[in-house]
Amino acid sequence: MSEIPAHLPHRYPFLLVDRILEREPGQRVVAEKLVTAGEPYLQGHFPGRPLVPGALLVEMLAQAGGFLEEASLHGAGIFLAGIQDARFRAPAFPGDRLLLEVRLVGAFGGLMKLAGTITCEGREVCTASLLVKRL
């Protein structure tokens, strides 16, 4: 999907998904984020040793989760309602190619529970369970 901005409300500098690599509607999404030295949040986090903030890693997973349902591809979308068990296991640096994998764990009412993992070159960077609400 090359038209990510048509499917997510986020725009630069807060659009944190570059490409959708795999998509099984209602089940699983694999997306990609290429971290570049020009990312605005890296300018102050941290000078001399820039790394991606943990909160933005979780946001990347939530944005990738926006591609799980067909409705999100037609403007309905989701928003982040909760974060559970977020773990940051390794830093992400400029030059890293992050793979974002999000799976649907369950749905109840207007909420969905997602399990997300970010990896880079085989190392686990972040894991989190997310609650998202359909708009």
Topology as a string of helices (H) and strands (E): HEEHEEEE
- Secondary structure category: mainly beta
In CATH terms, what is the architecture? Roll
The radius of gyration computed from the alpha-carbon positions, rounded to a whole number of angstroms, is 14 Å
Number of domains: 1
CATH superfamily: Hotdog Thioesterase
Percent of residues in beta strands? 35-45%
CATH fold title: Thiol Ester Dehydrase, Chain A
What's the CATH C level? Alpha Beta
> What's the end-to-end separation, in Å?
22 Å
Q: Main beta sheet, described?
A: 6 strands, antiparallel
Number of helical regions: 2
Side by side, the strands of the main sheet go 1-2-4-5-6-3
What is the average per-residue confidence, as pLDDT, rounded to a whole number? 91
From the spread of the alpha carbons, the general shape counts as: globular
Low-confidence stretches: none
Q: Give helix % range.
A: 10-25%
- List how many beta strands DSSP finds: 6
Structural account:
By secondary structure, the chain is mainly beta. The protein has a single domain (4-134), classed as Thiol Ester Dehydrase, Chain A (Roll), CATH 3.10.129. The chain contains 2 helices and 6 strands, in the order αββαββββ. It has a 6-stranded antiparallel sheet with strand order 1-2-4-5-6-3, with helices on one face. A hairpin with a 2-residue loop joins β4 (97-108) and β5. The longest helix is centred in the middle third of the chain and has 12 residues, at 54-65. The two termini are 22 Å apart. 26% of the residues are buried.
